[in-house]
Amino acid sequence: MHRFLIPCWLVAITWSALAGQLAAESPGPATSSLESGRWFNANAADWVELYVELHQNPEVSFFEDDTADRLATRWKALGLDVTTKIGGHGIVGILKNGSGPTIMLRTDLDALSVQEQTGLPYASTTTTTDGDIPETFVMHACGHDVHMTNLTTVAAFLSSHRELWSGTLMLIGQPAEERGAGATAMLRDGLFERFPKPDAALAIHVAADLQAGRVGYRPGFSQANVDSVDITMLGRGGHGSKPETTIDPVMLAAELVVSLQTIVSREIKPTDPAVVTVGSIHGGTKHNIIGNDCHLQLTVRSYDPGVRAHLLDAIQRKAKAVAMGSRAPEPIISVSEGTPSLFNDESLTMRVVNVFQDVLGKDQVVERPPSMGGEDFSQYGIAGVPIFMYAVGTVSARQMELAKKTGVPPPSLHSSKYAPDLETTLQTAFMTLTAAVLELMASQ
User: Fold this and answer.
1) Global pTM value
2) Cβ-contact 397, 320 below 8 angstroms
3) N or C terminus: which one in the chain shows less Cβ crowding within 10 Å?
4) If you write DSSP's letter for every residue of 279-321 in order, what string do you get?
5) In sequence order, what are the residues at sequence separation of 6 or more whose Cβ sits closer than 8 angstroms to the Cβ of residue 111?
6) Residue (of 275, 281, 279, 246) closest to 263 by Cα position
7) What is the mean pLDDT of the chain?
């Protein structure tokens, strides 16, 4: 299956040319990069095969049983000491190699309730009835299959090249990232008490707006606070022909949607990033029936803790005010799935970015603006570990050119049509993360 996916001759040519450039510019990084590039080329089919296996067998948050087992089996075969079921389906792999720092590498395990429409011959056809959703298709539409493949590939190289590094390598397979809960669950289960607390932690995330072969970085805040808010506006049902006898919850919800937008536009400073999005409204059952309630689902995003608190307080205030204005019962409001903003340690970030520039070339390493997306990798930073998450481009040059011509961007993450430019993405992710680890764990 993998043979039509990755042209190994192209990989060989690419790394042959790159090796010459590196040897001329930086003998230190060139030596390890040349070695890792050759190794990746020689084993590329294995990693594509692993990617396809993971891609075809996705599992949703909190139900990553088989995914965790697959990784645990692979990691054990590489010589890692593996512990499973940390904070649910979380796994930890430890590889000790003499004295030195403890460096943690993290991947997420879960997929999304999305029906794949990429047209790829290995597209996921998996369905699930797990969780709080009816039977649905499942897809790795956020690239966690790339993350898992990359982490396993890097571990395989480091396990077979122990002369290049020293210290303790700590691999984390984290569940439930899409629900913002997996990191917290692993930490609460004693992640940094039962295992060594890392001196630094690294992670990648695929990017659907960055060309394959490039990586992106952001020192400091790079991902937002993310909260989910559920609001049920309560009314008094009745016949659609007699609205005067009712309190229409759909009208309350409509008024609330408009009112919520004034929070950001009129209560938050324009220089403070903030987003309040109503992603779902459900109310009513039939044309001529006014129901008893209407349910809204919101995503709320920010960076500053004070802005975060203001947004959540204002949402409750607005919802209660709308209800009071129509003499309706007080709405039911709940906040869940909160994820704090991600702060990349500036010193760690720039140290690793310098290595990326040596490996890929300065033109291929770009600083990115902060994102309003969320990532619970932030929890490890809050727990006191310097962290750095960077973006790995996944869009082919052809897709990028087409997007420029048509004005239509490539499929985004979480899209049913998202598919990475696989061979270049896997190469770039492997080369950069391996180089970063060797920089931080250089053999003495």
Assistant:
1) 0.88
2) no
3) C
4) EEEEE-SSTTEE-SEEEEEEEEEESSHHHHHHHHHHHHHHHHH
5) 58, 59, 60, 124, 138, 139, 140, 141, 142, 144, 145, 178
6) 275
7) 92
Active-site residues: which are they?
110, 177
440: left (phi over 0), alpha (psi -120 to 50) or beta: alpha
Rounded to whole angstroms, how far apart are CA atoms 410 and 254? 33
Query: How distant is the alpha carbon of residue 363 from its chain centre?
Result: 25
pLDDT tens digits, one per residue of 363-378: 999 999 999 999 999 9
Each residue's pLDDT tens digit, 55-64: 999 999 999 9
> If DSSP codes are grouped into helix, strand and coil, which group holds residue 354?
helix
In a 3-state reduction of DSSP, which class is residue 10?
helix
184 Cβ contact list (under 8 Å, min separation 6): 87, 376, 379
pLDDT class of 22 with cuts at 50, 70, 90: very low
**Shortest CA distance to 438 belongs to which of 169, 73, 38, 219?**
169
CB-based contact 416:114 (threshold 8 Å): yes
Q: Where are the alpha helices (DSSP H) in 195-274?
A: 249-267
Token pair 């799935």 is at which residue? 337
Q: How far apart are CA 12 and CA 32, in angstroms?
A: 16
